[in-house]
Amino acid sequence: MVEVDDIQAVYGEQEPALSTDKKQELADMAGRIRTTVFGGRVTRQSELEGNPDDFEAYLGAHLWEIAEGGEAQSQSQTGGSVNFQHLQTNVESTLSETRYGRVCLMMLRSNASIGIVRADY
Asked: Per its UniProt entry, which superkingdom is the organism in (predicted)?
């Protein structure tokens, strides 16, 4: 599992306007998403390829960005307005919403498969 400091290193020098507790909550969520959705317990169309910790750190940064309102899609210099893209409904679709999520998408290998949940007995 990656730590908040690992995600901050990916996020960059800008400090997200999130509380320490919120950052930790989203870091924990990134770990759960990695292990459940992309960790082999669910057979789905994409599998993780590459370093799982790197994926989790970028996924955490993606979640931080989303929690702050998402990545700005357009800005007006004169009026001071900023437009944000609306989020999709499933995890994989939302990855295209931020620059961090797009890195995650590059780490996924697409497979032709169906979704099956394995039960551990």
From this structure: Archaea
